[in-house]
């Protein structure tokens, strides 16, 4: 059976971009067709300036929202990254396969590091090594596919490179995964700045629709979305990014096609109105389930406990195999250690 792995970072409240670009697909498709694991990647939230209490709160909220969007613990595994030590263990091994040049070429690193330096802050070393930890997240489970939004494609490419390199140097150990991107809304843009991604860690609230925004807040944000000069409604991501973004959001919510929808509308006003209503309708059941789950924190905790236990059992043998392959002496307690020790004699 195909193995799927994906993750979400608890660095901010989850957005419509997270939902349309990734989470919706996890719930509607991936958990039904594959052995799927979904992870709240809290270690990744420590790569930028952070408040410990906020990361804890957002991790709990992300877990609750993953269940609210429809992930079903009977069908898939939902867990928290830091509950499974194997991610960090494998990450170190992969750091011995990756190069610093490779890390410095990552777009997300360059952008975030530049932003941090502009603010006069310092860049955490973990921001540079972050893609290696992400590679470990994926490779430790032998995932075949990684459903993500477009912004993560480069990191998955790097993961493939590291897996291939490790396998060539030290013997076949890892499955070489591939990214799967949604066909519509792979990159939902900020409503106020339609040339930048709608990212949850940005602090410009009015351009970001959060999954837990009240209907009136959603309506207001979409009504105030920046559109382009020119009045006719055409779907052109380069020249008309504001309108293209609304058409993509509407298409993703209603199952339509942005190109076809562009012919339906004659004014920005009616496009915005329909888009706002489509988003409100899409989010309403998620918010309702979120409220119900919040009333039962013990349930969410139980899901995370069981998820981590299953994840650990899957991850351990892969890390042990990677340790052995790269030349580390097995400890007596490792899976299969005796066999290797005997073979080495
Ligand atoms: P993150 O918020 O960076 O943890 O991302 C979690 C998942 O949501 C990843 O698969 C991202 O690629 C996806 N994602 C985040 N923001 C967007 C966006 N604006 N449009 C589409 N997908 C997104
Ligand atoms: N880097 C991803 C993001 O910012 C989150 C992530 C971490 C992830 N590890 C992963 C996604 C493994 C997919 C697979 O969105």
Automatic annotation (TrEMBL):
Chief location category: cytoplasm
Known EC number: 6.1.1.2
Catalytic activity: tRNA(Trp) + L-tryptophan + ATP = L-tryptophyl-tRNA(Trp) + AMP + diphosphate + H(+)
UniProt short sequence motif 'HIGH' region, positions renumbered to this chain: 10-18
Cellular component per GO, a single term: cytosol
GO biological process: tryptophanyl-tRNA aminoacylation
Motif ('KMSKS' region): 197-201
Gene Ontology MF terms in the entry: ATP binding; tryptophan-tRNA ligase activity
Listed Gene3D superfamilies: HUPs, Tyrosyl-Transfer RNA Synthetase
Keyword terms: Aminoacyl-tRNA synthetase, ATP-binding, Cytoplasm, Ligase, Nucleotide-binding, Protein biosynthesis
Subcellular location: Cytoplasm
Residue numbers binding L-tryptophan: 137
PROSITE patterns to which the protein is assigned, alphabetical: AA_TRNA_LIGASE_I
Binding site for ATP: 9-11, 17-18, 149-151, 188, 197-201
Keyword Aminoacyl-tRNA synthetase in record: yes
InterPro entries in the record: aa-tRNA-synth_I_CS (IPR001412), aa-tRNA-synth_Ic (IPR002305), Rossmann-like_a/b/a_fold (IPR014729), Trp-tRNA-ligase (IPR002306), Trp-tRNA-ligase_bac-type (IPR024109), Trp-tRNA_synthetase (IPR050203)
Family in the record: Belongs to the class-I aminoacyl-tRNA synthetase family.
NCBIfam families cross-referenced by the UniProt entry: trpS (TIGR00233)
Subunit structure: Homodimer.
Xref: PANTHER family: TRYPTOPHAN--TRNA LIGASE, MITOCHONDRIAL (PTHR43766)
Role of this protein: Catalyzes the attachment of tryptophan to tRNA(Trp).
Name recorded for this polypeptide: Tryptophan--tRNA ligase
Species, as recorded: Streptomyces guryensis
Recorded name of the encoding gene: trpS
